[in-house]
Specification:
Blueprint lengths: L8 H16 L12 H15 L10 H32 L7 H7 L6 H11 L5 H30 L5
Helix pairs in contact: 1-2, 1-3, 2-3, 2-6, 3-6
């Protein structure tokens, strides 16, 4: 970008919180199954906010977009983790639990250590397990960061038009 670049923090926070909240809401989070669409959308939103008032530059600032997307993905991962905890607690208190019969069928005839089997059953039984939260956080950090960067880079291509 030309001159002093604006702060990436506010657009990354807005895009990341939108990504995290949408990713924590049951059924809406299924959009992430479609090539991490929510993560790409969060990065795209951050880029739209960041580049909306920017002057077009001769070379698109893909480096700025990558950093912006990475920040958005990190904020989104932590937001999704924090927001999903009360949702899981509420689901458990209402008695909404996933059907783990398929998981039990998968264990039949397998040489799975009992500790791993009990961990997986507790993870899928609807309860809150610290290990499951940490695994989800790490997976979200990796995936959201990568795909929010992709979304922000797409946003640069859309919002940073070259001078004609």
């Amino acid at each position: 970008m030309n001159g002093a670049s604006p702060s990436k923090l506010q657009p990354a926070l807005i895009g990341g919180v939108a990504l995290g909240v949408a990713s924590a809401i049951p059924f809406l989070n299924c959009l992430n199954c479609a090539c991490c669409a929510l993560a790409i959308g969060g990065g795209f939103l951050a880029a739209a906010l960041y580049f909306k008032d920017a002057q077009p530059s001769p070379e698109p600032p893909y480096g700025d977009a990558a950093v912006l997307g990475a920040l958005t993905g990190v904020v989104g991962a932590f937001t999704a983790t924090i927001v999903s905890i009360p949702i899981q607690l509420l689901s458990a208190s209402l008695g909404i639990k996933p059907d783990i019969s398929q998981l039990e069928q998968a264990f039949e005839g397998q040489d799975i250590p009992p500790a791993l089997q009990s961990f997986l059953e507790s993870m899928f039984s609807g309860g809150i397990a610290i290990g499951a939260i940490l695994i989800g956080l790490v997976m979200n950090l990796v995936l959201f960061t990568i795909f929010a960067m992709v979304g922000a880079i797409i946003g640069v291509a859309v919002f940073n038009k070259k001078n004609a």
